[in-house]
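Cont'd.
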Amino acid sequence: MNPTTLPAEFRDLLDAQVAILATMGADGYPQVSALWFLADDDGTFKLSLNSARQKTKNLERDPEVTLFILDLANPRRYLEVRADAHVARDDDYRFADRIRAKYGVDLRKVDGPGEHRLVVTLHPVKVNAVNVGG
Amino acid sequence: MNPTTLPAEFRDLLDAQVAILATMGADGYPQVSALWFLADDDGTFKLSLNSARQKTKNLERDPEVTLFILDLANPRRYLEVRADAHVARDDDYRFADRIRAKYGVDLRKVDGPGEHRLVVTLHPVKVNAVNVGG
């Protein structure tokens, strides 16, 4: 089986409201935070990040990251997606507007002077679908 | 303020049923999983792990890890605890029995031949208490 194949019985987690991203911090500790995301039809995951954020700097320095999606109703069930992060400018907020459609938040209002909006595409290299109770 | 001080309004998360642990994998990607934990009165966090698990090997190789506790009822609220992991044997299941008291699971039944039970103590070096909506 392709190591990035997502089992059908876990596909509901692609619609989760929040994902958890682990990047490698410059201090040597993983940096972990919860954030908005979209699962795209091509199997990638996309994030909308501000250029000034620490997690953005981390994944630009070390693009090997892990996205974790927990079933909030049954936290023994989760997806762990190890992925390579590719960063691109989203100056026209084209992707940010897809986040707006899902979450109802306008990211134009978040970015300050000298900052810019990025779209981060996570290309899975390994997917672990876990159900401890299953 | 001490960087490991936990704000009072986040102390409820110490009683959460699940925590998320990020370790550094040998493949260069963070390894992330959900697991049982106890928050101890001395400010440390403790985990009960089997010696054969990948996360155990990761934190023995690189003890700089991050524990993440998400408010499942409000996932914009969470604790990120960067910590140094110290591993000790728990051959008499003394700590495992504290996990049993919290979760009702007997970890003696989990460990196979040639494996042993460990208690991992996480000593926080930095605590980030986040409430995105707060």
